[in-house]
Every structure is written in C-alpha cells, then in structure tokens.
Amino acid sequence: MSCGESHEMDCSEVLDHLYEFLDNEMPDGECVKFEVHFHECSPCLEKYGLEQAVKKLVKRCCGHDDVPSDLRSKVMGRIDLIRAGQVGPELDVTAPLHGEKTCGAAEDEPAIAPEDRPATQG
C-alpha cells in the first residue's frame, strides 16, 4: 500500500511492522518514526486505528480467560527452542509435542486427518 506521498518511511514498511508498533515491541527511535508517519499519512493512520480497535476488541472479549499453565509452558518451551536455534520458526505449532495426544484421540486411536473429517455445515 502506498498513499502516493513521499515519506521518510515507506507505507508498506510501516504496515509490515504495524503489530510490532501496536504491541510496543520496537525500539523507541523506531516508534518515533512510526508516529511521524501516522501524523503525515492518513491512510496508514486509518489502518493503525482499525488494527488498534480490533486488538482492543479481542482483548475485551477474550482477555479474561486464563491461559492453562501447561499450554503456557508448551508455548514458552517452543519459543525457547526457536531462540536457541534448535527448531525453526516454520515448525507447525499445531502439531503435537513429543508423546502428546492430539485433541479427541484415544490412547490407541490415531488422530483424524483434516481431510478425513466429515464436512460440517455452516
């Protein structure tokens, strides 16, 4: 996306890193560049506002549920493996961990592959 105007930061670069900005996960110097861009570029400011509103809505609707401690441990363990370089980020995070059963599968029963599941009507 580009608004057609000349900016210090290109609109596509701003939008590529929008969630880092929203989540306060970038250095302060970078944040200032984003703020300047939003001040100059109304299409990017609009996109920022929309994403910020969605984030607030999700937090309001889903932010009250506690994360099960075992799920948190598994996720943090995978993050540690990725950071240590032992596992690439392309790992299928939906795949079960070593020795972990898939949802709904009995001990001696294999999980049903998505293509083998009956179709649901919506």
TrEMBL record:
InterPro entries: Anit_sigma_mycothiol_RsrA (IPR024020), Znf_put (IPR027383). Residues 103-122 are annotated as: Disordered. Residues 11-44 form the Putative zinc-finger domain. It comes from the Bacteria. This is Mycothiol system anti-sigma-R factor. It comes from Streptomyces palmae. The lineage of its organism: Bacteria, Bacillati, Actinomycetota, Actinomycetes, Kitasatosporales.
